[in-house]
Amino acid sequence: xxxxxxxxxxxxxxxxxxxxxxxxxxxxxxxxxxxxxxxxxxxxxxxxxxxxxxxxxxxxxxxxxxxxxxxxxxxxxxxxxxxxxxxxxxxxxxxxxxxxxxxxxxxxxxxxxxxxxxxxxxxxxxxxxxxxxxxxxxxxxxxxxxxxxxxxxxxxxxxxxxxxxxxxxxxxxxxxxxxxxxxxxxxxxxxxxxxxxxxxxxxxxxxxxxxxxxxxxxxxxxxxxxxxxxxxxxxxxxxxxxxxxxxxxxxxxxxxxxxxxxxxxxxxxxxxxxxxxxxxxxxxxxxxxxxxxxxxxxxxxxxxxxxxxxxxxxxxxxxxxxxxxxxxxxxxxxxxxxxxxxxxxxxxxxxxxxxxxxxxxxxxxxxxxxxxxxxxxxxxxxxxxxxxxxxxxxxxxxxxxxxxxxxxxxxxxxxxxxxxxxxxx
Length: 425
Known about the structure:
The protein contains 2 helices and 34 strands. With 425 residues, it is mainly β. Strands 2-6-5-4-3-14 form a 6-stranded antiparallel beta sheet, with no helix packed on it. A 4-stranded antiparallel beta sheet has the order 7-8-9-10, with no helix packed on it. The longest helix has 25 residues, at 2-26. It starts with a helix and ends with a strand.
């Protein structure tokens, strides 16, 4: 009996030793952010109205027909009746998981929802409904983690990542995973009338800020998605059809449309397309600058570009570039002005509004593009400003702590009309 037990024990010991050695060489354990998923089916059943949702993490802003739309990043959409800018009225919140961008044509809104494009009917603001969806048209994105721990392996077959849990991860290490997705941190971009009880009209295009990545020209919807420009036919708004995609280059961030041209802000410059024929964008030129985040707005023959450091875009430049676009084929720098950490900007007549990050909102008289810094009209330094929309005497500005509206009808006395506070737990 004893003779039989010894070899069995020895074999067990050798197997344990062998298994341990193998496991140590092919697996590692570490603290990391483990993905929290919702399934694709759950994602596609999530659009609905909710009550008592406060503004907590405001993102991009949009205006149409007396209504302001504010994205609650990755969660949904706040809608305010702005008939009276001094007292905007909260109307509704719509749950839309993964939302970052939006655009409106007539009474139809287009928004992203992680990998999908969702189409909403907004003619009745208090009854916003989903009327269409294009599945799997957007790049797979993941939310920020909020810490510096590594990210555990993401299995896109399980659904979309809506959050993270810090766990001990056990992972095989022979074949490191290359993640085919973007962080949402890399994606972040009329007259008033009494519309109480109404909704968004069936005509016209809304107005977005300078950080926008969606744009509409006639029956064409443009989507910036990673490094691609998606071109969709929206003649049948509830059922957009993808025409084709363009790869303008690396680091495409923002989009600004004029009547006949598209200006793309990138981490290395500005790219100009002729969209006289909306369904056939034709590349005109590229204006290059040092690497930096780069929203752009255009007014007549001038483009205004803010460059920002301290982000995923790289670079160490913080400035405002003024570029002549009289010849669209050969943009030329007129002057560059130092800034603190600029984000979005807007232009109305001679007034230039710059969201200079932690330095707040700055308002310049830009009548002479060579001496803009000498003509600071107003400054609000105690706001971390993100983006603006000038609306003819009323400026809508979104920052980390809420949405502000200013009356700038008298540039010698720009005044705060209202503020929608951010409420954090």
